[in-house]
Amino acid sequence: MALAGTSKVVLGCIAFGIFWVMAVFPTVPFMPVGRTAGSLLGAMLMVLFRVISPEDAYAAIDLPIIGLLFGTMVVSIFLERADMFKYLGNLLSWKSRGSKDLLFRVCIVSAFASALFTNDTCCVVLTEFILKVARQNNLPPQPFLLALATSSNIGSAATPIGNPQNLVIAVESGISFGQFLLGVFPAMIVGVLTNAAILLLYFWKYLSVEKDQEGGQPTGPEVVADDEVTSHRFTPARMSHVSSLNPDDMDCVSEPIIRSNSVSTTGNENLRSRSINSEADIQLAIKSLRASSMSHEMVEVSTVPDRRDEGASSRKFTRTASQQRSVIIEDLAPSPEINGEKEKETEVAEKRWKVLVWKTAVYLITLGMLIALLMGLNMSWTAITAALVLLALDFTDAQACLEKVSYSLLIFFCGMFITVDGFNKTGIPNTLWELVEPYSRIDSAKGVALLAVVILILSNVASNVPTVLLLGTRVAASAASISHGSERKAWLILAWVSTVAGNLTLLGSAANLIVCEQARRAQFFGYNLTFWSHLRFGVPSTIIVTAIGLLIVISY
């Protein structure tokens, strides 16, 4: 495709430049309107400058990708409500064997969670929990935050639903869920393990520092959480059985004991008249009273008419004090408070059962969606169907759930589709690709290396999703001239490199920014992950993981 007219090229570059600035720097001082508004502004300028017609602008919006994004968002919302991410968080600290074990768990759990629930969602729900665990164990937060961000990006490369650029690749290429998984999953496993090893080597000194309490006596008072303090405070419920009763109950229980223990009355009066001046005397008196009442239980004789003789005669029976107490308790009418408590317990049990059934249904529907994707069914309609089934089974107004969907992200994608399509019509991307294409063919090692470098740089300059939209069809067409299998391999290379490229800098991936912002705003456990601290680890990790993963993807 040749270059368009000069005016069209210039105006198209201006519109795309504004979009790029807003997408990469959403809080730019002269227009801090954010990524979504910047995307719509770029799309509007493409139409106003007549770089693209309104009809072509509507056609540029890829509805299957929008539908797949919407469906996965709704499913992720229901999984969060069903405490799936809470269980994943608990898995991180369950029987942990130290700081290095915890770091390794963060890498593994975040990678697999991102492959199934998208990397952005995983980072949103796990960042604060990881900060809390690190602070409670007196560990530096930085290695664990880097482990979450980098492992989430690497893990998300394994499936088409792991991140937005993979959604675009899966829809544009027509690669099935199963083929995508087989092509990238082995590289993801090796990449996550490699990244974890680099993290352990890089932060070995920091992770080897033991807590002050270990290897010696604690130097200060023990800090107890508020809820733990509350649970150990003195309350009437923790008193003994007799003292926890109200005064009326005390009279009912003690009266038959006193009447039946007439022989021991003198001893009890002597106890009462004894001068008690210390807590030890009080305890001794209580023990003596209990021992006396237990050893001198008398028999009370009662006369009850014998109904078999129609009241003419009477029979005698004996009853111990303990039996009298049980009779008194049995004869009491059930209290309304007790009945109310039983009803509440029944309601709570029913609610727990309903919640358990609902959670099970959510997990089964999600599992069914994954199975349908593995079977090769249409990904967009599979995700939308799973989302609608979950909304229907909730038996409540869906507005509360649908309000949690990130519509700003969907709108951002719509504007980005139009802007990138308009930029393609200027002919600039195609001209630049023609210069690079002869040297970046994937039938040689040098070509694969050059292609990876181009994707790596462009993903950090223009972001990964626009990179996929700009390069996808061109890389696939170049590989298709080699063989049909090479075309699929080219799409998988693009998916792997564009995703792992997000680990290079803090601005390379939305997941990185989410971890940074969530950590900075976390209540009580805030931490500032800086650009340079991420860059020092991100550069070597990205280069090594990308290279190792490429060897595995190419061999598929």
From TrEMBL:
Pfam family, one: CitMHS
Single GO cellular component term: plasma membrane
Source species: Zea mays (Maize)
Residues covered by the Citrate transporter-like domain: 27-501
Keywords noted in UniProt: Cell membrane, Membrane, Transmembrane, Transmembrane helix, Transport
Primary localisation category: membrane
Transmembrane domains' residue ranges: 9-28, 59-79, 102-131, 181-204, 361-393, 405-423, 448-471, 491-515, 535-554
Subcellular location(s) per record: Cell membrane
Membrane topology: Multi-pass membrane protein
GO-annotated biological processes: transmembrane transport
Chain residue ranges for the region called Disordered: 297-317
Name the record gives this protein: Citrate transporter family protein
